[in-house]
Design a protein that fits this description.
Layout lengths: L6 H4 L1 H10 L16 E5 L12 E5 H16 L5 H27 L2
Antiparallel strand pairs: 1-2
């Protein structure tokens, strides 16, 4: 299945800006990223949500782990949609909080 990525997701200047905001680190574990290991993802997994705050950089290992968990969650019958929404919101809030902290640091220089 071919994925049609949205305009903001493919915008190279937004990707570079996000890289700088994240200080070249994996958003979830804080590890330094090499450009070969970095993957740009949708935080909530929704490829129709093209809000730049819904995009972040993670390592290939982290991306694989996220995909594995998402697939396991989809397979569980007892997971409710509200729980999935809460998980996505938590990841989104973590990203925006991280960005806010780094914007404050950027204004000092």
């Amino acid at each position: 299945m071919k994925i049609n990525y949205k305009r903001n997701f493919t915008d190279l200047s937004l990707r570079l800006q996000k890289w700088k905001v994240q200080l070249g680190k994996d958003l979830l574990n804080g590890e330094e990223l090499s450009k070969d290991d970095a993957v740009y993802i949708y935080i909530d997994g929704d490829k129709t949500n093209d809000n730049p705050d819904n995009h972040c950089w993670v390592s290939k290992k982290t991306d694989k782990m996220i995909n594995k968990v998402q697939n396991e969650v989809k397979m569980e019958d007892n997971i409710e949609l509200n729980e999935l929404i809460l998980i996505s919101k938590h990841a989104f809030l973590r990203c925006t909080s991280f960005e806010s902290q780094n914007r404050s640091k950027e204004t000092l220089f």
